[in-house]
Amino acid sequence: MGYPVIDMVATGERIHCLMRENGLSAKQVADFMGFGAPQAVYKWLRGDSLPTLDNMYALSLLLHTNMESILVGNGGGVFLCPLFLFSIGLLLPTMGAASSLWSANRFSLCPA
């Protein structure tokens, strides 16, 4: 096992997935963070940069998760965002009883 690093692109995809789960746009996240424009948020989503520690903490509160759940390390796998699966009709039939928990936003189905 090599030295653990954060996969910035996968972390950006995870942030984007969590934003969609919470119905948030980049502009809304930027406004919450006190940014004048959403460019910094778009950089996170593309994997060009990561939020600072303070911004990561605020983001975790906004996205109703913890900071560690936002970050994706170099050992992560390939995942499909649940909203994509839902849009093509695969999510709810395969989830069974878990679908009601997801729709109630009690836990995140975005990959950790």
Describe this structure in words.
By secondary structure, the chain is mostly helical. The chain has a single domain (8-103), classed as lambda repressor-like DNA-binding domains (434 Repressor (Amino-terminal Domain)). The chain contains 8 helices and no strands. It has helices at residues 8-21, 26-33, 39-46, 53-62, 67-70, 82-87, 91-95, 98-103. Helix 1 (8-21) packs across helix 3 (39-46) and helix 2 crosses helix 3. It is globular, with a radius of gyration of 14 Å. The model is unreliable at 91-107 (pLDDT under 50).
Largest sheet entry = none
Please report the number of helical segments: 8
Structural class: mainly alpha
Structural shape: globular
* N-to-C span: 19 Å
Strand content: under 5%
Which architecture name does CATH use?
Orthogonal Bundle
- Write down the CATH class: Mainly Alpha
Backbone CA Rg: 14 Å
Helix content range of the residues, please? 40-55%
> Could you tell me the number of beta strands?
0
Order of helices and strands: HHHHHHHH
The CATH topology name reads 434 Repressor (Amino-terminal Domain)
Tally of distinct domains: 1
According to CATH, the homologous superfamily is lambda repressor-like DNA-binding domains
Low-pLDDT stretches are: 91-107
What's the mean pLDDT score? 79
